[in-house]
Amino acid sequence: MTSQTAPSPLTFIRSDVQGMHAYAVQDSRGMVKLDAMENPYTLSPLLQAKLGVALGAVSINRYPALRVDDLKQALKSYVAMPAGCELMLGNGSDELISLLAMACLTAKDKPKNTILAPLPGFVMYEMSAQLQGLDFVGVPLTADFELDEAAMLAAVAAHKPAITYIAYPNNPTANLWDAGAIKKIITRCNAYGGLVVIDEAYQPFSSSTWLDEIRANPSANENVLLMRTLSKFGLAGVRLGYMMGSKVLIDQIDKLRPPYNVSSLNAECALFALQHKDVFADQAVQICSERERLLAGLAVLSGVTPFKSDANMILVRFTDADATFSKLKAAGILVKNVSKMHPLLANCLRITVGTPDENTLLLKELGSFPN
Question: Do residues 313 and 37 touch, judged by C-beta distance below 8 A?
Fold first, then answer.
């Protein structure tokens, strides 16, 4: 009798998926957590109790419905959304990025569409393209992490991407790019119908927002979608993102959104946060103040180069990033080692701005203050 080898259970799993690495989350138990750009502040006991009452009243036996619509209206009011625009919700910005890629023409279409973004940048732009069978083109930033305007415009002309992502500010470099260069990219994409997605994940800590440009020049930004998240606002555990743009565009992309993608509990948490937006605004002010203190403390260290930040994180170049990362981890401080993500990030760590005590502990460990 001839024995037969059973087919692999991975037979029908795409080879490119098998070759990918899952998104890694560091074990942060017992650590000072400065690795994921989270708001370090928790709710006060009083607000925790009030939120508990609100969540306890949610009809979790029913599918999300009108309360999610209430959240959309609250967000429209919160951002003072321009006339003619619409807003859609996502299970974090990650889902919105996936839906945008899903909306594009794929490999069976001629020509296949391209997604373009500066590098280094948020990994989900490229991953969403790969998972939908689209081409991805990354355009390197300059050595000081600015947009390479000429290279970006040349790439847009050569590839005519369906979507060009502009993170404002960027992750992991934390800087805002030149508005004049962005306007040129938008104009170039608009000429052939390409979309530009401005990703403002770190808007609560930024000195500028592209929403002002959309209000001032709506016709010049008809092909622009503005994406934000409540994660950095202070609700990373809630997983809620939102995207704004012309109603014509949003209505089409919203067709791809899974029904009930935002849970009733998540919607209630977000509404609660918006009802107490002043508390979170005060937290953002504290984070920005601590960011400046961190930048000053890091700048005086020998062999350490912190880069300007408009986010709740700071990109820092060390003489030896691996050794510094290990030293901090051994001291119970967890940061993000991005030194292998892109050649421009050689010997760089990304450090989230924490509470005053957490930031002081970090600076002491790095030698900025005497023990």
Answer: yes
Same domain, 71 and 201: yes
User: Mean pLDDT score of the chain, rounded to an integer?
Assistant: 93
Q: State if pTM tops 0.90.
A: yes
Helical axes 277-299 vs 264-275, angle rounded to 10°: 80
Beta bridge partners of 199: 167, 227
The reply to whether 271 and 297 lie within a common domain is no
Shared domain for 241 and 305, answered yes or no, is no
Query: Structural domain of residue 126, as residue ranges?
Result: 59-275
- Residue 330, both tokens: 């051994």
Contacts of 31 (CB under 8 A, 6+ apart): 329, 332, 333, 334
At 8, the pLDDT band (50, 70, 90 cuts) reads confident
In this structure, which amino acid lies at residue 17?
A: V
Contact 242, 270 (CB under 8 A): no
Residue 267 φ then ψ, to 5°: -60, -40
CA–CA separation, 227 and 96 (whole Å): 8
Check if the beta carbon of residue 346 is closer than 8 Å to that of residue 46.
no
Same domain assignment for residues 117 and 258: yes
Q: What is the pLDDT of residues 196-223, one digit of tens each?
A: 999 999 999 999 999 999 999 999 999 9
Residues 305 and 205 in one domain: no
